[in-house]
Amino acid sequence: MxxxxxxxxxxxxxxxxxxxxxxxxxxxxxxxxxFPYIPNKKLKPKxxxxxxxxxxxxxxxxxxxxxxxxxxxxDLSLFPTRTxxxxxxxxxxxxxxxxxxxxxxxxxxxxxxxxxxEVAHAYQMFLVYNVKNNDRxxxxxxxxxxxxxxxxxxxxxxxxxxxxxxxxxFYSELRKYKVNNW
Length: 182
Prior knowledge:
Layout: H1 15-34, E1 46-50, E2 61-64, E3 70-75, E4 84-87, E5 102-106, H2 107-132, H3 139-150, H4 156-159, H5 165-179
Parallel strand pairs: 1-3
Antiparallel strand pairs: 2-3, 4-5
């Protein structure tokens, strides 16, 4: 699946933005192939980014517009400030062996982890939005995520949180197969 309709702020191409776009395309394609029952035409996240340090608490984030359109915003102001960076995760998952913090990794791997983090949110939001709107085509994906989460002793109210088990389901797939192995 091709990502389309990029929103680029500022209008500036660079190695970093091209690499971020490549990662988004690659990760969406990977998850689409892994979960072929996702309606491909519906998930086309717009990518927005900035090279200016963000002075809000949002920093990099993923959101959903009122019309159900998903966007990914990347704060790229730190890339590449030096050859080795840390990709610091939230305290609740920082020590996880699959999705935890990456210390002293190349800036490209740190960028890959950041993009994977946000693409996982895009899939999480897409699923939650479509389940709430009774999209029956997504029941298989929902069942797979629920089955995965039950293996980790989840309760239904922990599945849909922002960094809850549905997000962890997608993020762990991307980290295992696309980020951690290089």
